[in-house]
Design brief:
334 residues; alpha/beta; TIM Barrel; Non-ribosomal Peptide Synthetase Peptidyl Carrier Protein, Chain A; eight-stranded parallel beta barrel; two-stranded antiparallel sheet; 14 helices; 44% helix; 14% strand
C-alpha cells in the first residue's frame, strides 16, 4: 500500500488510541512488526497555543518511522494553522480524526461530530490539505447513527479534495465501541474511492486481519485496542500476511519481560511517577487472561517505585513457574 510516496509493506498499522499509543508502545509495536504507527490525537487549538501536553503526545524517535500525526479540530483556520506547525515537526503523514466518539471531542464539533456536518468536514479537510506538504489521510466512522450512515459519500469527497488514504472504523458514533463493527461498510467505502482504504475494527488476531482483507478488499489493516498488552499481534499478523511460519504464542515470561521493557521506556520518556502510573493500564492488559496472576495485578496497581514493580514481576515469574511454560498462561484461557 502507498500513502503518497510512502510504501507500507506489509499493510499492517498501529492505530491511534488516546492515552495508550505513546512513543514506548509505538516502539514496541514497530519492533513486533507494525509497518506504520499513529500518534495519539492532538487538538488543533492546543497545537496553536503551544500546549506542552499537546507536544508531548507528538514526541517520537526515529525508530518509530514512518509515523502519522493525528489532528482533530472543527475550525478550518485553526486546523490549517496547526497543520503548518505539525508539518515543521517532521511527520511522514498527517491524519484528520473524524471518528472519535468521546463526548469532550464531539462537544467541540470535532471527531465523529464531523460525520453529521459534511459541509464543515469538507472545509476542514481542504484547509488541512492546503496547509501541509505531507500526505493527508482522514479517519472516519460509518456515520453519526444508524439513521445517518454516510461513510461512502464522505469518502468520495475526501478523495476529491486530495487526501491520500482513508481509514474507516465501521461503527457509528452512537455505537462508540459497543456491538460489532460492520465490515460491509469497509467494502462500500473501498468501492466508492480509488485511493487506499484502511480497515479498522474488531481485529484481535491474524485470522481476523486476513478475513478483513479477503472480505472487504481493503488495502491495509489497522489494529488499535487489540494491540494493548499484546504487541505480538503484529508479529502474528505479519507472518500471516507474508506466508511465514506462525510464531509461537508468547509465554507469561515473555509477556512480563516485555512489560518490564515498556516500563523502562515509559519512565525514560515521562519520568518515574508519571511513567509508572501510566504503565498500570498496560500491565493489566499484559496479564489479561492469566487468572493465577490476579494477586500480582492488584499489587502492581498501587506501587509507584519502578524498581519495586520490576522486583514483584520477577518474583511472580518464579512463583508462577513461568520458566517452565511453553505457552501463554500455562494452559489457562487467554
Amino acid at each position: 500500500m502507498r500513502i503518497g510516496n510512502l510504501v507500507i509493506d506489509p499493510p499492517l498499522i498501529l492505530g491511534p488510541l488516546a492515552g495508550l499509543t505513546d512513543s514506548p508502545m509505538r516502539r514496541l509495536c514497530r519492533r513486533m512488526g507494525a509497518s506504520l504507527v499513529w500518534t495519539e490525537m492532538v487538538s488543533a487549538e492546543g497545537t496553536i497555543r503551544e500546549s506542552q501536553r499537546t507536544f508531548e503526545f507528538l514526541d517520537f524517535v526515529e525508530e518509530e518511522r514512518p509515523i502519522v500525526f493525528q489532528l482533530f479540530g472543527a475550525n478550518p483556520e485553526s486546523v490549517a494553522e496547526a497543520a503548518r506547525i505539525l508539518d515543521g515537526m517532521g511527520p511522514d503523514v498527517i491524519d484528520l480524526n473524524a471518528g472519535c466518539p468521546a463526548k469532550k471531542v464531539v462537544k467541540s464539533g470535532s471527531g465523529s461530530a464531523l460525520m453529521r456536518d459534511p459541509v464543515l468536514m469538507q472545509e476542514v479537510v481542504r484547509a488541512l490539505i492546503e496547509s501541509t506538504s505531507r500526505p493527508v489521510t482522514v479517519k472516519i466512522r460509518s456515520g453519526w447513527d444508524e439513521d445517518s450512515i454516510n461513510a461512502p459519500d464522505v469518502a468520495g469527497f475526501i478523495e476529491e479534495l486530495g487526501a491520500s488514504a482513508i481509514t474507516i472504523h465501521p461503527r457509528t458514533r452512537a455505537q462508540s465501541f459497543s456491538g460489532t463493527a460492520d465490515w460491509s461498510l469497509i467494502t462500500e467505502v473501498k468501492r466508492s474511492v480509488r485511493i487506499p482504504v484502511i480497515g479498522n475494527g474488531d481485529v484481535r488476531c491474524a485470522d481476523d486481519a486476513i478475513r478483513m482483507i479477503d472480505t472487504t478488499g481493503c488495502d491495509a489493516v489497522m489494529i488499535g485496542r487489540g494491540a494493548v498488552g499484546n504487541p505480538w499481534i503484529f508479529r502474528e499478523v505479519r507472518a500471516a500476511m507474508t506466508g511465514a511460519e506462525p510464531p509461537p504464542e508468547p509465554s507469561l515470561r515473555e509477556r512480563l519481560e516485555t512489560a518490564i521493557e515498556q516500563l523502562d521506556l515509559m519512565v525514560e520518556a515521562k519520568g518515574v511517577r508519571r511513567g509508572v502510573r501510566e504503565m498500570r493500564k498496560h500491565i493489566v492488559a499484559y496479564l489479561r487472561g492469566f487468572h493465577s496472576a490476579s494477586k500480582l495485578r492488584a499489587e502492581l496497581l498501587i506501587i509507584e517505585d519502578p524498581e519495586i514493580v520490576k522486583e514483584k514481576i520477577r518474583e511472580a515469574l518464579v512463583e508462577l513457574g513461568a520458566s517452565r511454560e511453553t505457552g501463554a498462561g500455562g494452559g489457562e484461557t487467554k
